[in-house]
Amino acid sequence: MRLYVGCAMWTHPDWQEKPLPPAERLRTYASWCNAVEGNTTFYATPQRRTVESWARQTDPDFRFVMKLPRTITHDRRLTGVDEEMAAFLDALEPLGRRLHALWVQLPASFTQLPALADLLDALPSHYRCAVEVRHPVFFENPRATAQLEAVLEAAGAEWIPFDTTVLFEQPATSPAEYEARAKKPHNPRRTRALTRYPIVRYHGRDDPAATVAGWQPWIDTTVAWLREGRSPTIFIHTPDNASSRTLARRFHADVRARLPDLDPLPDPLPTDPMTLF
Question: What InterPro entries does its record include (predicted)?
């Protein structure tokens, strides 16, 4: 059994007693978590030498979930993107098996399922894909839900839920929570996995105790997935993400308390004096 946990980034000012050199930041993060969201690739395709550095800093069992560039998903809305996609895949090649999934995060106005089906069908079969939709119709209209699931299942792709239930269930209590609520989607929680490799993005609150209390349904779901033979990846977010790295390890520990045979996380390098629990 393998559970991957991680955060939205691999460096944060609150995670180190003193700043680390760039070549050590990912290496240090990878001693705390075994997966990471590749959000930076949304803004630009990285240089291949940069990706080679990411590979050098991580063990082969570490996992990246890499977001497609916005030129593909938002500017061109998946149409006429062969050249951009080829350049992106070439840049990521040094990751090898560390590349867990290509993350297709679609804009909130996107409903063009034929374009999504064409994109997924055109990708080489050895790439695993996971799609995050934000348009409310896919959560509120059973027919639209079924149509999206059919497209994803035909391509062997996963549906990434972004669970912000806890973030929105109580009024914001800090500037960071106000900002998060302004930027994050607010759709119903979804817990159905389509593949052996479900991916979840969970967003908590400033208060670690509220974040832990809110993820209890995901503990149950994750345990069930693991018992079914799936290998889930859970990403933990908080409004300012200062505590997300420690909380990701806490999530893994809470699951492992119920499944003692679960592979443990690595022992973290001692760079963080912060203790939440």
Answer: DUF72, UPF0759_sf
Ordered domains of the chain (ranges, CATH)? 4-258 (3.20.20.410)
Greater confidence (209 vs 13) lies with 209
**Residue 23's pLDDT band (cuts 50, 70, 90):** confident
| Statement: the pTM of the whole predicted model exceeds 0.90 | yes
Q: Which distant-in-sequence residues (6+ apart) come within 8 Å of 183 by Cβ?
A: none
DSSP assigned state of 154: H
DSSP-assigned states of every residue in 86-135: HHHHHHHGGGGGGEEEEEEEPPTT---HHHHHHHHHHS-TT--EEEE---
The CA–CA distances, whole Å, from 100 to 67, 107, 187 equal: 11, 22, 25
**Which residue's entry shows tokens 């998060």?**
180
36, 10 Cβ separation under 8 angstroms: yes
